[in-house]
Automatic annotation (TrEMBL):
It comes from the Eukaryota. It comes from Pterulicium gracile. This is DUF1479-domain-containing protein. Signal peptide: none annotated.
Amino acid sequence: MTRSQKKEGSISDIFTSLNPDGFGKAALPDRFIDLKKSLWNAGLVQSWRDVLGELEVATSELLTFGGTQVIPRISYEELKGGLSKSLAEEIKRVGSVVVTGAVPKEEALGWKRSIQEYASLNKDRVKGFPANDIQVYELYNTKPQLLARTHPAILHTQAALLALWHTGTSSSNISLSTPISYSDRLRIRQPGDASFKLGPHVDGGSVEKWEDPGFRAYYAKILGGGSGWREHDSFDAGSRTLVKGDLYETANQCSIFRPFQGWTALSNTGPGEGTLRVFPNLQLSTAYTLLRPFFRPRNASSSSSFDAEDWVPDLESSAFPGSMPGNTQEYTDGTHPHLRLKEAMVEIGRVEAGDQVFWHCDTIHSVESFHGGKTDSSVLYIPAVPLTLQNADYLRDQRIAFEQGIPPPDFPGGEGESQCQGRATKEDALGLSLEGRRALGYAEFVAGEGLDEGFVREVNRVLGF
Ligand SMILES: [Fe+2]
């Protein structure tokens, strides 16, 4: 393994808002003033005005016509026939999608029962958040997780969604048609829970989005000013693979190219029952996020004004609202008023056990602060991740961690499930389908459809074949 373990912890470590020190209390060092100045150009004023204008139109429309129905939904049966051009465009515009029915309901409910049995069998060793009444488990290596990550219909869904991306000039080093496994944890959230309240956020770093040269290249059109933000391509995998979201190497920070985060439902859950919300306009929220640190309210009384006239360039402070090095980018009405989060964050709608939700790595998302339902709201976090050289390198270390029963490299470390009875083993992995074994890094890749010969050779070498 080439990666060292992260310190022990839980999902709360990466959210400034879930930490006792609170949100936005610590000022960023002065080097962030220099960073802002180095990125500034006068054309950003025009971008800012445009984006605020468009946000006003988009959020008003959303409030008039919107709600949950703006989130694209497709059944797995339909998806198998291929995404229509219009639905593909809609998923790209909104930045998220619900795929229903890929896994039979009974199978998904069986997975949950099996996880609950495992958690109770190993109750003295299982950790999570919050520690005294776990809703989000530090479990990565249960048998149902292994089965779900390699489920043919889930892998097929991932490939269909990864095809929304394009590889640009790096086509020989990425295979968007080859999904691989990125192990993550799970949530079994009980009715009445108010502890697991993840406010609006974007995964994959905060200040890193301006600090890292790879991110700056990916966002070059937005940072270039003028109307460039309209041309930003959120689905340019060739460029996105070059970003470094874990500049500070903190636990819970995704270090690989993860185009879509996602989950597979293990329960029937609807709005108000502790589920996911998203901001349903990817282009606008991304542009606004990138532009926001360059502007401040003209005076204290204009801090919640939507009017561009009330905002002026801010190159004298180190403020990057909602950003904290190594943590997730967070959003509140105070830090990002123009998003009108309270109204514009849309519930993803009712899901049944076995349904999947995916959202683009730049989509602003949150988890309802209170679970007001009558039954558990449960998911396995399973993203859509393609084969790349860097991702193969991670897959090798993830495989080693899996065999030891410890958390995967990006997650809080410690002994994890190494002493737990009944966890998934290498033998279980070797008993899976060829496609499943490949996704886990247990079988060689072969050149062919979407897989360049030189790339495959390199990938297999990295994986030790
Ligand atoms: Fe997240």
